[in-house]
Amino acid sequence: MASKSRQLIASLSSRIRGVIFDMDGTLTRPGAIDFARMRERCGIKPGGDIIEFVNNQSEPLRSKLNEILIEEEEFGLKRMELMPDIKQLFDYLIENNINRALLTRNNDTIMNRTVELMNYAKQEPFSVMLSRTFSPPKPHPDAIHHICQRWKLNVNEVLMVGDSLDDIKAGAAAGTKTVLIGLEDNHLYQQALPHADFVIKNLFELINVIENINNNAPESHSSTTTAETIIVQSEEENKPSIENRS
Fold first, then answer.
1. 2 exposure class (CB count in 10 Å sphere: 0-12, 13-18, 19+)
2. Residue of 8, 18, 33, 46 with fewest CB within 10 Å of its CB?
3. What is the value of pTM for the model shown?
4. Residue 90: which residues within 8 A CB-CB, separation 6 or more?
5. Nearest CA among 118, 146, 121, 120 for reference residue 131
6. How far apart are CA 124 and CA 142, in angstroms?
7. Domain segments of the chain as ranges
8. Among 234, 22, 242, 233, which residue's Cα sits nearest to residue 149?
9. CA distances in angstroms from 36 to 42, 72, 137, listed in the order given
């Protein structure tokens, strides 16, 4: 994998100007939300796509299942902890004017709680935040394209960082380079490993990935954007999103 990453870095022609982060298992420690229990309560087979299963149900079952998801996510809030090195990483991203986005399949409450836990005083840690209210969710690439459009960046100037195959598949389908974070004993990591462009064990190592890419790539003509936090209705109908819009 290290050899593959070195070859990929040498071939890249664009600097990294934006990073899209998954949440659970990427910015927060894995295990806070008990997805196995969530599947069991919803009658979903082990490893099945929870959001897809729930969305495919008709009412009133869909609403009842969504209540279970929210209940289990609320339980997870009590156990949620940030990953180590998150402050150092975001200091670096902000100092280098690199855009940041949060893209999660969790609900708005969990998403906003993560930002509160970060307690980041320098500026808003994310310029765009999308929860599962943005449809279709990962691994579909629409949300990533939406974020890149908001930033006015090409997909080859953006990294997608996550801990699961859904994250890596979404980034690859969108055209971004992908970064897998995790440890070898995690089954999600093993599923995604063959498909990721870069692999890191912690958030601090992401700085090295970005530095290596940007030090080897020429300056591009795209410009980054600054943003103020607003709540908007996304461009496509029925896709509400909480985001910072330039």
1. exposed
2. 46
3. 0.81
4. 100, 118, 120, 125
5. 146
6. 24
7. 2-29+81-245, 35-77
8. 234
9. 10, 10, 20
Q: What is the pLDDT along the chain (246 residues), one digit of tens a residue?
A: 554 555 566 566 689 999 999 999 999 998 878 888 989 999 999 888 888 899 888 999 989 998 999 898 888 888 889 999 999 999 999 999 999 999 999 889 889 988 888 887 667 899 999 999 998 999 999 999 999 999 999 999 999 999 999 999 999 999 999 999 987 777 778 888 999 999 999 999 999 999 999 998 876 444 444 333 222 223 333 333 454 333
Phi, psi of 231 (to 5 degrees): -110, 125
CA angle 239, 222, 11 (to 5 degrees): 100
**Structure letter (DSSP) for residue 185:** T
